[in-house]
Design goal:
Layout lengths: L6 E4 L4 H12 L5 E2 L11 H11 L3 E4 L7 H6 L1 H21 L4 E5 L28 H21 L2 E7 L1 E3 L12 H14 L4 E5 L5 E2 L1 E3 H12 L3 H6 L8 E3 L5 E2 H12 L4 E5 L8 E2 L4 H5 L8 H15 L4
Parallel strand pairs: 1-2, 1-3, 3-4, 4-5, 5-10, 6-9, 7-12, 8-13
Antiparallel strand pairs: 8-11
Helix pairs in contact: 1-7, 2-4, 4-5, 6-9, 6-11, 9-11
Length: 320
């Protein structure tokens, strides 16, 4: 990686993409291309082709995706598979056509089977049935990995994939229906505190366990993986099993998470769990041994990260 490279961050308005832009600038990269959705619709192949033809990009961080929680995935499965397939296919193919040699594709921990052995190793990919609530999204993300690997095999590119665990932090989506669990609970507990509500209801039993990574740490991990030499990356992966998990290697129950968020927010009422609502996968913990052996580990503890996330919510969302 050269500090003079022209870098395209796809999805730069999203939580992860924006964090990657911040980290690139912190590390001294200055020529960062960050078009908005209005300027570049990644679902449209002709728009993406024209963009790469005009911009002379050296490397790509592909963080663009249609994302959402259980409710959104259940309600809009066609949108999730179509838009994500189009985004990654267009960007990866047109990057190759334009001669881009270096690309990092960001996937998701949902690529692994619902009942995968815990913690989930990279080689558990495609060994079992996916979680039904987000299968279309997961299929799209698996396709992104295989696109990168296939272009590497056929064309000699250096396209890499990372699979982050559940992310949270500045720039998160706090929509009351379409958000993930941490931003959803932050908003719910904040509004309950403001309204002096005696009780907050949380979906499910509270028993499932989840792993969470602060988004600034995730962005740092992306730069770390992108900066590995081709020899080191190849030595620690396989041609058709080349993705790397990104996470903390630690998880908590949803009940523990809810209690911690309520405490960070300052909500003192009752937390009630609704077992009639879906729990999703029983446990999702990443095996991060591969990334650890490559010299990277997360720095931000969960409680500290939640406090930073709540401060961001107060500054940028709560008053809307």
């Amino acid at each position: 990686m050269s500090k003079n490279d022209r870098i395209f961050v796809a999805g730069n308005r999203g939580m992860v993409g924006a964090a990657i832009v911040r980290k690139l600038r912190e590390h001294g990269y200055k020529d960062i291309v960050t078009p908005s959705h209005a300027d570049l619709d990644l679902v449209q192949q002709s728009d993406v082709r024209n963009f790469f033809s005009e911009q002379r990009i050296d490397q790509v961080y592909l963080a663009a995706a249609k994302v959402g929680g259980i409710h959104a995935n259940n309600t809009y499965p066609a949108d999730f598979i179509y838009q994500n397939l189009m985004i990654e296919t267009n960007v990866i193919h047109e990057a190759w056509r334009a001669g881009v040699k270096h690309l990092l594709f960001l996937g998701s921990s949902c690529i692994y089977p619902k009942m995968a052995a815990q913690p989930m190793r990279e080689d558990s990919l495609l060994t079992g049935v996916l979680e039904p609530t987000n299968e279309p999204y997961a299929i799209a993300k698996i396709t992104g990995i295989k696109l990168c690997e296939s272009y590497n095999r056929q064309y000699g590119t250096d396209y890499r994939s990372v699979m982050p665990t559940n992310l949270y932090g500045p720039g998160d989506n706090y929509h009351p229906e379409n958000s993930h669990v941490i931003p959803g609970l932050i908003r719910r507990f904040h509004e309950a505190k403001q309204g002096s509500l005696a009780q907050v209801e949380v979906w499910g039993t509270g028993a499932p366990k989840r792993e969470f990574l602060y988004v600034e740490d995730a962005a740092e991990a992306c730069l770390h993986v992108m900066g590995l030499s081709a020899e080191v990356y190849a030595r620690n992966t396989e041609p058709m099993l080349s993705h790397i998990n990104i996470g903390t290697g630690e998880d908590v129950t949803i009940r523990e998470l809810a209690v911690t968020i309520a405490d960070v927010v300052g909500y003192g009422g009752k937390i009630a769990f609704d077992p009639t609502k879906p729990d999703g996968t029983p446990r999702k913990l990443m095996d991060v041994g591969r990334l650890g052996s490559l010299g990277w580990r997360a720095k931000t503890g969960l409680r500290d990260g939640l406090a930073l996330a709540y401060a961001d919510f107060l500054a940028n969302t709560a008053k809307r």
